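batch job 7 of whatever, protein = Gas vesicle protein
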Amino acid sequence: MADDFNESSPSGKPEKLTAAFAIRAATEQFGALIGRTPEAVSGIRALPDGGWSVLVDVLELERIPATTSVMSTYRVDVDATGELFGCERLRRYTRGTTDM
């Protein structure tokens, strides 16, 4: 994957945290924390302090058929350096559910 930022520090992290790097940092750290692989990112928002709030969708309970599997959306917050500093589950739903 190409660099998502122009200049980086010796640690490889960007001088200014980009949305793409924030998504990567949030999904990797959160996945390691809960022991599941995030399936998708459904939203991202910049925080006033330079960090980011990322909405991560995770498979909670796999069922057959797959449309009945239980999914969750978590808000995962990373600070301006890309470190996870907060997370919370916002909702649970079945994979086949649509929002109206």
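notes: The first strand starts at residue 38 and ends at 46.
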